[in-house]
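[09:14] KT: can someone run the structure on this one? pasting the chain below
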Amino acid sequence: MRVRFSQEVLEREDDTAWRALARIVDTFAEGRHVWEIDDPDAIEASRWIAGDAGSREARRTLETMRKSFTEALYASPNRRAHTLVIVVGADLHPDQARRCLEAPAHVVVENGESDGAFLKAMVRAYGRHELEVAIERGWVDVVHAGGFGELEKRVNELIGSVPGPCRIFVLCDSDRMHPEHNDTEAIKALHACCAHHCVPGHVLYKRSIESYLPKGSLKRQGKRDVFEAFFDALNDVQRDHYNMKEGFKRPKTREGDVSAPAEHKGLFDGLAQDVLRKLCGGFGDHAWRLFLWPPSEITAASVEERCTTNPGEIPRLLDTIEVLV
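[09:31] RB: done, structure tokens below
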């Protein structure tokens, strides 16, 4: 976030408030938040600094202030991170502001391990360095909800846990079986919860996180028949709604026919039996682990090749999260 100090709080004879300001300065020094400064001279002449002139803490504060002021002159005007602004002493009391700034932003997901791997892979692929650092250092916390049904509960638990702007984002699979598949009642309830609390969220356009795995990554999974049928016989819309983990259900007998679930509403009608057979079993429950491969395996270009039905979805998602940093 971008942080400003009101002149009133800088002139206040309040050691408790000044100790809170010193802790806030620590967040600037480590690059966690940005100190927005209009008049460096006014800060240097304030009671907060001048009253303790020459001390080690005052020197450190002035050094951080000058560095922050200089960096602001060269900051990109298109920078997405640090766009939320709070004014210490006006919006929040100093100690409230300290609590706000020392707390992480939260990205609430169904499964912290698999969804976290997806999110981190997308952050790397699209070169979002500031967001990558924020996640690595715990400034953005990927919150494990423990299943879709727990997302709303976790949001309600986090709301109001710290003072200041709401810094929560919700990410979940759509589980859509076909393009016109309406949101489930559970997703509608989640939307209502997020809207009530002004929490941004994103329901993936494709069926699941695994639907975003690039072609090169899926080839590594070793499911040759599934891979060939998936990319050679299916179109982009069918690939968006295929069950990547389980595929189609195998027939009870070797001679039995394979059929796509009725919930797909005919999306896979017309596919030959040999294709449907190859698509049985999917890429496996652990296909998400492909997101853990080195960054060279998953690039922005390779992800966008899989997003032809909704191009730019991932950058938009990351933009929204980055604003909360």
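[09:33] KT: thanks! The chain has two domains: 2-101, 105-325.
[09:34] RB: yep, looked fine to me
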